[in-house]
Amino acid sequence: MTAPKADLRVAVIGVGVMGADHVARLSATTSGARVAVVNDHLPAKAAQLAATIPGCRAVEDPLAAIADPGVDAVVLASPGPAHHEQLLACLQHRKPVLCEKPLTTDLDTALDVVRREAALGVRLIQVGFMRRFDDEYRQLKAALDAGELGRPLLMHCVHRNRDVHAGFDSAMVVRDSLVHEVDVARFLLDEEITSIQIVRPATNPGAPAGLQDPQIAILRTTSGRYVDVELFVTTGVGYEVRTEVVGERGSALIGLAVGLVRKSADGRWGGGIAADFRARFRAAYDTQMQRWVDAVAAGARTGDYADGPGAWDGYAAAAVCAAGVRSLESGRTESVELALRDTPE
Ligand code: ISE
Questions:
Q1: Could you tell me the pTM of the whole model?
Q2: Residue 232 sits in the same domain as residue 300
Q3: Which of 25, 42, 240, 338 could anchor a disulfide with 160, C-beta 3.0 to 4.6 Å?
Q4: Which residue minimizes the CA distance to atom 7 of ligand 1?
Q5: Which residues form the GFO/IDH/MocA-like oxidoreductase domain (predicted)?
Q6: Quick check: CB of 129 below 6 Å from ligand 1?
């Protein structure tokens, strides 16, 4: 009889909102993995969390946590500015890593990560663009790939948040929110984005002072298709993400997320609305984690430690957002400067 395979021992670096969510997911939902180490820039927070998870330790230095011989793989949910150094440590120690966006916070370091991973000749980095694991996005992608709409021509996206945390500025609407639509556009249309313009409509009087909200982004792809995105992060209502693709033989729309439709005695009808991205994309996050764990476990055999968007996708999305931030300032259409791709798909 062969011994049961040991669980993958995961270090979660950064246990804020997203990291804590991943710790809970790995502990309760994902099979074949467990949280062995947690780390946070607030050591007491990590220690407190570790005490609630059997067999889990808090390690104060993130680089030591990554290098720890008791760690097989890493989930990076630390603040973006720490990612470059931490990703390089994962590559150095050959630890597969699921990295929350952004890959890094500037294009030089993002490209550095892409190239260093490519030099190793093995895919160790997966970027947490979780929408690619959402059932509705997968159905839309399958319909497009099967040619059901003919050639896709246009895409209309809506990205609304109920509210954002203090300090969320206009550039963050591009880097933190629009970045998902950028990835979705690249995923669904299967091509790069070559230019972007951000238009500034009259602002929501309820938005914090100085925040340009809403914004409209207009993206152009290599073959000349256009994607428009409404970004509105202070609606006060709930989390709404919709995508409509218009093709030469019809259109398809996802993200109505009405769930159960109720009719009430006061003459109203309607469904539910998710409060935030964790609720809306819970199943996608779960699937992403399970598939990543399975890919890492199979990596020694397959030579591929990721199953989803990789470092190039993180870099390409960041390049579009960097041009978007320039457009926010200039008001003009800005070209996306993408390095020549010399890495495998
Ligand atoms: C947040 O970081 C996310 O990733 C959400 O998906 C997005 O809707 C939100 O605007 C971002 O701040």
A1: 0.93
A2: no
A3: 240
A4: 177
A5: 137-252
A6: no
